[in-house]
Design goal:
Helices cover 53% and strands 23% of the residues. By secondary structure, the protein is an alpha/beta fold. The protein folds into 2 domains: 80 residues; 123 residues, Trna Endonuclease, Chain: A, domain 1 (3-Layer(aba) Sandwich). A 6-stranded mixed sheet has the order 1-2-3-4-5-6, with helices on both faces. About 5% of the residues have low confidence.
Length: 218
């Protein structure tokens, strides 16, 4: 091997080592870049996971608060029940009695009146009547949430009233549905039936009927 050939081999070896060193440097930089991107992705993922966890906690707290609010509203409305119950001792019955006395001139008013005939019974929340010049009876049913079954119950009471209260058979009989809450469609149906609707306002029941309302006498 000549000196010239040996020098050429050494130069080629040096060039190869240089390229390998450069390739190694580039690969090391690429690995570092990828590792940094991976670290940033992991940090972003952890950040999003933490945000999601906090959002879940906030949602959970909100749902619990909403649940407590709904439960409290349900408890308050449930306290009214479909019937008067102990609420007769509160504002409902006195305000309804006032309405019956002042608006309809009733002179006999009683809560939770019950009658039995032939093994059957009927109970009305409020029964009001007058034996004076105004020969009328008003049957009041109180509902926390007025639904279709409440309207049907009132229809049934009005249809069968004289059977259970024959002493009032010569009187005109009117119905009043008093509700804390009444959907618009049910409210319209009540009025179309000629049944008075009363809504609670400032803890007192007030009539909620249009000026052209025509009550139906049974």
């Amino acid at each position: 091997m000549t000196t010239e050939t040996l020098q050429q081999l050494i130069a080629e070896l040096a060039e190869t080592q240089k390229r390998n060193a450069e390739d190694l440097r580039l690969q090391t930089e690429e690995n570092s870049r990828q590792a940094e991107e991976s670290r940033r992705r992991d940090e972003e993922l952890r950040r999003r996971q933490e945000e999601s966890r906090l959002q879940v906690e906030d949602t959970s707290r909100s749902l619990k608060e909403t649940g407590r609010y709904i439960a409290e509203i349900g408890r308050q409305l449930g306290g009214l029940g479909d019937k008067f119950g102990s609420f007769t001792e509160g504002m409902a019955y006195p305000s309804m009695r006032k309405l019956l006395e002042e608006r309809f001139k009733m002179n006999v008013i009683g809560p939770r009146v019950r009658a039995r005939r032939n093994g059957r019974s009927m109970e009305v929340d409020v029964l009001a009547y007058s034996n004076a010049d105004i020969n009328e009876v008003y049957v009041v049913e109180v509902k926390s949430h007025l639904r279709e079954d409440g309207l049907e119950q009132m229809r049934k009471i009005l249809r069968e009233f004289r059977e259970f209260f024959p002493e009032h058979r010569d009187k005109k009989i009117y119905g009043i549905l008093a509700a804390v809450d009444a959907p618009d469609d049910i409210r319209e149906r009540v009025l179309r039936e000629g049944i008075y609707l009363a809504r609670i306002h400032d803890e007192e029941f007030e009539l909620a009927v249009p000026s052209d309302f025509k009550p139906r006498a049974y």
